[in-house]
Amino acid sequence: MGALRLLLTALALALAAAGARAELAADAVHDLPGDPERGAGLWRLCQSCHALGEGARNRVGPHLNELFGRRAATVAGYRYSKDMRRAGADGLTWTADTLHVYLENPRSLVTGTRMAFRGIPEEADRADLIAYLRRFSASPRDIPEAAPTAPPRDPDVAPAILAIEGDPAYGEYLAGECVTCHQASGTDEGIPSITGWPERDFVTALHAYKNRHRPHPVMQLIAGNLSEEEIAALAAFFRGVD
Amino acid sequence: MRVTRRRLIGSAAAGAAALAAPAAIGAARPHVVVIGGGAGGATAARYLARDGKGAIAVTLVEPTRTYHTCFFSNLYLGGFRTLESIAHSYGRLAAMGINVVHDWAVGIDRDTRTVALAGGGSLGYDRLIVAPGIDFRWDSVPGHGIAAQNAMPHAWKAGSQTELLKAQIASMPEGGVFAMVAPPNPYRCPPGPYERVSMVAHQLSRTNPTAKIMIFDPKPKFSKQALFEEGWAAHYPGMIEWLEPDFGGRIDEVRPDAMEIVSDGEAVKVDVANVIPAQKAGRIAEIAGLADASGFCPIVPATMQSRMDPAVHVLGDATIAGDMPKSGFSANSQAKVAAMAVRAALTGSTAFPPRFSNTCWSLIATGDGVKVGARYEATEEKIAKTEGFISQTGEDAELRRQTYEESLGWYAGITADIFG
Predict the structure, then answer these.
(1) Under CATH, which architecture does the B2-63+103-135+279-353 domain have?
(2) Taking a C-beta distance cutoff of 8 angstroms, is the pair B101, B63 a contact?
(3) Do B367 and B404 meet the contact criterion of CB atoms below 8 Å apart?
(4) What tens digit of pLDDT does each residue of A53-67 get?
(5) Looking at chain A from residue 54 to 93, which residues have their Cβ under 8 Å from any Cβ of chain B?
(6) Average pLDDT, chain A
(7) What are the alphabetically sorted keywords of the record (chain A) (predicted)?
(8) According to CATH, what is the number of the domain B141-275?
(9) Which of A76, A214, B248, B355 is the most exposed place for a label (fewest CB within 10 A)?
């Protein structure tokens, strides 16, 4: 019962906040396919960690005002994970496209993110939430995805690719290229650990580099030259490395 | 011995579970000798011992007991690393079953497949991996030579030479001159001389800010030039003068006794002279007839086999590796390709397609790191670049700082991959 009341209170607060900002960015809304009103309801998934609207401050996660067009890891006063800082420095900027990828599975875009959130599997739900978040960013004409040159969002990793059974023996050979930088022991001394990952996350991450959702140039180079089978083989091999 | 080995290969190749090759354990294991315990040789030895799972006997011949990596030795000059932090021993390789022999290989008889050691021993091999790094063309800088390497150190093989150079920099008089005579292509670590200048400048800017740095360069351009020049202007304004060949960079001679460098007929008095001579493959490659007229060793890209002898593989700085630069990263990459080819030849294990890559990080100033990298493929003719990237000028400080932190992670990663 208490939970329901909390939820309703939160919804009401969120809607009020949305109303307060809606006219500021009124012309933003029709650029996006999602339904911001429905997105306001989905905000409940985020609000235990994030704040939004007038007076919002950083909490467990950074506040999400002026999110669109913002370089990742740039909210003052918030202590980001090393990986999020790296992604921001590498050029990750929050747009409808990057938020879609991030919200589907945060770790697929930013491996070591502090956002311990399993993701939103339904594209329509993400679109609604993103449309809602967009109300809290001003200057909609300047936001990146509104530009005619904005790159189209790459497709999700197809189930057929995720279903590929990797050959760990081949993965072990291919891993020779990875362990020049990523330590086989799983130690992180400046380059993230890649051992023991769930295969789905590993495959999703490498496809994010291969398809250049993730910006790191070395990883784009390495992943760009790996076939779907080779990515599956590496995922299978590193899954088994402690 | 060789007959046994061939029979073994036949039976192993015939079996489906060739990877395990248990028959090879015991009586007549094929023997691989690796000459040189640097980024190429030690990696090859380690991968052969590890992936061979005991089916291959591996001997590593390396004269030094403590190996100082040339990569990151500039950071020692700049005060960012201690010498101990770039020192590595061979204990973990020995513990995994590699026969580590601290001796010099002084001869290779390719007919009898035997390596002669300076200490008098000899080693027979089924396959030989030669990874001797570089040696110097001592006649390339008139007036210089091996007898002058203390007066004008090269510090292009890390260790005592690097310590000596650091001590000389520390003793420079106030407002003194540090001169580098940069090497001609091809040489170990293309961005290395310019990272070194950056590190010397960093050190001097703190201890001797009116000192000057001159680079006498026989090359009209150099690796990551725009990035270094941008960084020098930003961090060390007015300190560094790069002389290109047509404007004083091409020198006539050096005079170690007088500490002079003569260019365009004019003698320049300097306080420290870091003279990096022209280079060639390590001497043992030359002795064994593995090098061509260029002084370096031609290889078959797909396997790193010598073009002179298919029973010999050559790795790293000693090779003519096409588009791949001479770097520790390259040698490590090539070593894995060679180890796989050797293992496939000796035990019938699967030979996967070769993969080559390289990334070189350089440090310009505190927290200002840059990188360049590429992927390569083996063609019939050479190791050919397929795709690459380089840091951009004008990058923000946060990205540069992360690039530097990434280089620290890389150093920890690659040295664990090389030395275990």
Answers:
(1) 3-Layer(bba) Sandwich (3.50)
(2) no
(3) yes
(4) 888 888 778 999 989
(5) 85-86, 88-90
(6) 80
(7) Electron transport, Heme, Iron, Metal-binding, Signal, Transport
(8) 3.50.50.60
(9) A76
